[in-house]
């Protein structure tokens, strides 16, 4: 289920990790990995919304500037911001894809792998200590 939480975020965005997080609350391992995937998707969604609002504001500012009665000039800001916003969104998507695949593999191996920043936040939300769950004890014979 922890592997699915990471892998399904590529298809189901934040909904898939949220469902797994809510269904598998009794497993700290699954809850931890599902919460990390959920937090990653929330951050991803916020960044995409900010980039789209910035792009839309540039379009509106360009339109308002050109309706001032002057002859229209080419909207340089629009032509600069559109590729930058697109590259930002695509770079964010590729980064999310790589992180989801990498941590799905780690979760499948049974590792308590933390996302670089969001892992600490997930541990804080779940009230886990910094070392809790990091080491898997093996039974001795």
| Terminal CA distance | 29 Å
Tell the overall outline. elongated
Mean pLDDT: 79
Instruction: Domain count, please report it.
Output: 1
Indicate the percent of residues in helices: over 70%
Largest sheet: none
**Total strand segments:** 0
Task: Evaluate the radius of gyration.
Answer: 21 Å
Our estimate of the beta-strand percent is under 5%
Count of alpha/pi helices: 5
The class by helix and strand makeup works out as mainly alpha
Low-pLDDT runs:
137-141
User: What is the helix/strand order?
Assistant: HHHHH
Description:
This protein has 141 residues and is mostly helical. It has one domain (2-67, 74-125). The protein contains 5 helices and no strands. Helix 1 (2-12) packs antiparallel against helix 4 (76-108) and helix 2 (15-23) runs antiparallel to helix 3 (28-66). The longest helix has 39 residues, at 28-66.
Give a short overview.
The chain is mostly helical. It has one domain.
Write the layout of secondary structure elements.
Layout: H1 2-12, H2 15-23, H3 28-66, H4 76-108, H5 118-125
Helix pairs in contact: 1-2, 1-3, 1-4, 2-3, 3-4, 3-5
Give descriptors for this structure.
mainly alpha
């Amino acid at each position: 289920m922890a592997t699915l939480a990471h892998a399904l975020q590529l298809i189901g965005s934040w909904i898939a990790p949220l469902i797994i997080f809510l269904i598998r609350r009794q497993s700290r391992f699954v809850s931890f990995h599902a919460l990390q995937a959920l937090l990653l998707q929330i951050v991803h969604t916020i960044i995409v919304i900010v980039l789209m609002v910035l792009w839309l504001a540039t379009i509106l500012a360009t339109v308002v500037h050109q309706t001032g009665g002057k002859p229209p000039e080419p909207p340089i800001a629009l032509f600069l911001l559109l590729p930058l916003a697109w590259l930002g969104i695509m770079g964010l998507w590729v980064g999310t894809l790589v992180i989801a695949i990498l941590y799905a593999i780690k979760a499948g191996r049974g590792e308590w792998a933390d996302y670089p920043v969001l892992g600490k936040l997930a541990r804080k939300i779940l009230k886990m200590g910094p070392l809790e769950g990091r080491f898997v004890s093996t039974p001795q014979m």
